[in-house]
Amino acid sequence: MKKHLFPLFLLLIGANAYAQQDFFALVGKDSPNIVFNDFRAIDATNGISGEQIFTETSTAKVFSQGRNGVVTEDKNTYNSSQTASIATLAYDAFNNNLVYMPMFSSNIYVLNTKTKEITLVENNIARVTSCDINSHITRMATGYDGNIYAINNSGTQFLQISRKGNQYAVNDLGIIKDDVSNGKNSFTMLETGFGGDMIADAENNFYVFSASGNVFKVSTKELKATFVGKISGIPENYSVNGAAVNSQGKVVIASAKGAALYEVDLKSLQAKQIAGEQNLHVYDLASKYFANDRIAAGNILANLDIYPTRVDEQYITVNVNDKSVRGTLTMTVFDLSGKAVMKQNLPVKEGSLNQQVYLKNLVSGAYLVNIINESGKVLLNKKILVTE
Question: How many domains in the chain?
Answer without folding.
Answer: 2
